[in-house]
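Hi there. Long-time user, first ticket. I'm pasting a complex I've been working with (about 261 residues overall). I'd like to know whether the download I got is complete or cut off, because the file seemed smaller than I expected. Thanks.
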Amino acid sequence: MFGFTQWRRRRILRKFNVDDAAWQRVSACFPFVARLNDDERSRLRDLAILFMHGKQISGAGGLELNQEMKLGIAVQACVLILELGIEHYDGWVEIIVYPDEFMPRHEIRNEHGLVETDEMSYAGQAWLRGPVILSWADVEHAGEMDGMNVVIHEFAHKLDMLNGEANGFPPLHAGMDRREWSQAFTAAYQDLCRRVSAGEHTEIDPYATASPAEFFAVVSEAFFELPDIVRAVYPQVYEQLALFYRQDPANRELPREWRLE
Ligand SMILES: [Zn+2]
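Hi, the file is complete. Here it is re-exported in full:
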């Protein structure tokens, strides 16, 4: 794989712009865009264009996707890589969107050699070196600022998979400390597991206790949607995520219209 050269990047941006009205309508849906300054918004828009150009986003199960729906997915996927670069999503191309939750026909061979099917339905999936699959019904709820965002979740898994199967330990940048990452995430994960099994109400979605990989994806959703809560509950995890995403959303002002009463 080779990355985008500056020349290719400029050529794509000139050729495939999104019009201002569509950009305004779509980007106004997301609280994490509301926290960005003008320069960051304009870089997010460029990344979304490069993303739509480089990926194949298609509807399945009868869903027809228009340009604004694709742009909405691109904006959410690109907020994670705003300070990292589009190259972080190299190596795979396909995004498949179903109208609603989907039930993949996995066949799993159990320990007796019998084939079982996994009857789970999913809002999203991310495959190692393969596609991201999303449920549009869940993507549409993304603007609600409840700390849940299926697009951010699945693309956090994609970043985690840059060094193999998702395990909650993505490749860290130079200058980050693996031990600090590990200590922060292990302590928070164990704390959340303990609180969930004690039946406590938790600010972080209990689904995060499914595995360290799910914990990383779920806290990434919350980091962009409700960063103050992540910082208050698990400050060390917040600090590691801020270093990893190179963003500090809890220190950005959220415009009044987005504030929860
Ligand atoms: Zn997940």
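A couple of notes from our side: The longest helix spans residues 178-197. Residues 153, 157, 214, 217 surround zinc ion (CB under 6 Å).
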